[in-house]
């Protein structure tokens, strides 16, 4: 399915199924909606679950720009409105978590609650340089998907599994679906920033979930939960940054009761209004 996002950018959408209140899934930088497949399977019992490839990612359009925060937030808002998901529970990982809380602050009418998965609200000033060096080091093209899995899963196997989802095959091997210049252009708009002042605008319920072994500071994420007006907190043991791959049972145990509470509330409101 295709939906027109901010500025007419075409977004590749996966409708995972389910009926009832809207649940929107936002992946992280370099990711795609398919990363959420395992999570979406159990979420469908609570509502209609939708994910999409962010601009410049996956099979969505890859325009020259913009890749700033208003474009990403505008895409999420446009999709919620186009698919009549409002008010949606918005679940975002990493960059998707940033988009989720910025959307909730800018358009509270569209958001019933947010889950922020492993995102540091204070991004270091050298983040863009670190990513540029890391991306330049990728041995592209990868000869096989096994090589992709081994390269990215050298320290944590599940990270290799997540990167397999974001590659496309060609005659000479496997390459990332997202272009390096688009990734860095996206990152440039949130690298080296303190986003904590934005959190006061998020008046809906918000759950912050951190990986205990993530490179994203756990203390910063706990602080974010405390700064949110209606913030809640969970930390997953044995999980790194891609926490829903690393500890899927812990992820579900943390997130499902929160989603169930919000979607039940939304369904009750619909029945009362009707």
In brief:
It is built from ten helices and ten strands.
Task: Summarize the structure in words.
The longest helix is centred in the C-terminal third of the chain and has 26 residues, at 248-273. α8 links the parallel β9 (206-211) and β10 (231-236). It contains ten helices and ten strands. It has a single domain, classed as Rossmann fold, CATH 3.40.50.1820. α1 (37-43) packs across α10 (248-273) and α2 packs across α3. It has 274 residues and is an alpha/beta fold. Helices cover 39% and strands 20% of the residues. Strands 1-2-4-3-5-6-9-10 form an eight-stranded mixed sheet, with helices on both faces. Strands 7-8 form a two-stranded antiparallel ribbon. The model has no long low-confidence stretch (mean pLDDT 96). Keywords: Hydrolase.
- Look at the structure and give the mean pLDDT: 96
What fold name stands as the CATH topology? Rossmann fold
Distance between the termini: 30 Å
With strands numbered from the N-terminus, the spatial order across the biggest sheet is 1-2-4-3-5-6-9-10
Tell me the strand percentage band: 15-25%
Q: How many structural units, i.e. domains? A: 1
- Which regions contain 5 or more consecutive residues with pLDDT less than 50? none
- CATH-derived architecture: 3-Layer(aba) Sandwich
CATH class: Alpha Beta
Name the structural class: alpha/beta
The succession of helices and strands, N to C, reads EEEHEHEHEHHHEEHEHEHH
Helix content: 25-40%
CATH H-level superfamily? Alpha/Beta hydrolase fold, catalytic domain
List the total number of helices: 10
Biggest beta sheet attributes: 8 strands, mixed
Strand runs, count: 10
State Rg.
Answer: 18 Å
The best one-word shape is globular
């Amino acid at each position: 399915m295709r939906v027109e996002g901010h500025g007419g950018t075409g977004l590749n959408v996966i409708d995972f199924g389910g009926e009832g209140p809207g649940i929107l899934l936002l992946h992280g930088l370099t990711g795609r909606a398919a990363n959420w497949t395992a999570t979406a399977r159990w979420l469908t019992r609570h509502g209609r679950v939708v994910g999409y490839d962010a601009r410049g990612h996956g099979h969505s359009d890859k325009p020259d720009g913009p890749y700033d925060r208003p474009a990403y937030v505008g895409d999420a808002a446009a999709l919620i409105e186009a698919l009549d998901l409002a008010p949606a529970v918005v679940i975002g990982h990493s960059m998707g978590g940033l988009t989720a809380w910025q959307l909730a602050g800018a358009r509270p009418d569209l958001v019933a609650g947010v889950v922020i998965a492993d995102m540091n609200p204070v991004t270091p000033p050298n983040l863009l340089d670190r990513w540029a060096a890391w991306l330049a080091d990728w041995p592209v093209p990868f000869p096989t998907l096994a090589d992709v899995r081994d390269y990215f899963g050298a320290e944590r196997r599940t990270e290799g599994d997540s990167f397999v989802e974001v590659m496309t095959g060609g005659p000479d091997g496997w390459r990332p679906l997202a272009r390096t210049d688009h990734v860095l252009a996206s990152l440039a708009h949130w690298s080296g920033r303190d986003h904590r002042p934005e959190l006061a605008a998020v008046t809906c319920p918000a759950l912050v979930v951190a990986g205990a072994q993530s490179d994203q500071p756990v203390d910063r994420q706990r602080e974010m939960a405390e700064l949110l007006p209606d913030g809640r907190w969970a930390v997953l043991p044995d999980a790194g940054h891609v926490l829903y791959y690393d500890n899927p049972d812990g992820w579900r145990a943390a997130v499902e009761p929160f989603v169930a509470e919000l979607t039940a509330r939304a369904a009750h409101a619909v029945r009362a209004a009707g």
